[in-house]
Amino acid sequence: MSQEVQVGDRVRLRKPHPCGSYEWLVVRIGADIGLKCQKCGRRVLLDRGEFRKRLKAVIQPAEPPAPS
User: Fold this and answer.
1) Which pTM value belongs to this model?
2) Which CATH number fits domain 10-60: 1.10.3470, 1.10.3430, 1.25.40, 2.30.30?
């Protein structure tokens, strides 16, 4: 997927987490993508290639910072 994600985006992955949730919050961007499950709160790291394969959709993009 060519769409870039940002910290704060809510994303849907193709396979569910063992708790049953498909929705994740992006909490870290770097060599790995940090995700937090929206149902149980578990945090995981996926490398960028694996994340791109598993990403199905960006549900809610992060809100842009307010201008000062």
Assistant:
1) 0.83
2) 2.30.30
pLDDT tens across the length of the chain (68 residues):
446 899 999 999 999 999 999 999 999 999 999 999 999 999 999 999 999 999 999 998 877 766 76
For the chain, domain boundaries: 10-60
Run of H or E residues at 52: helix 48-54
Record the tokens describing residue 58, joined without a space: 């960006």
DSSP 21: -
Q: Fill in the amino acid letter for 55.
A: L
Yes or no: say if 41 and 48 are a contact pair by the CB < 8 Å rule: no
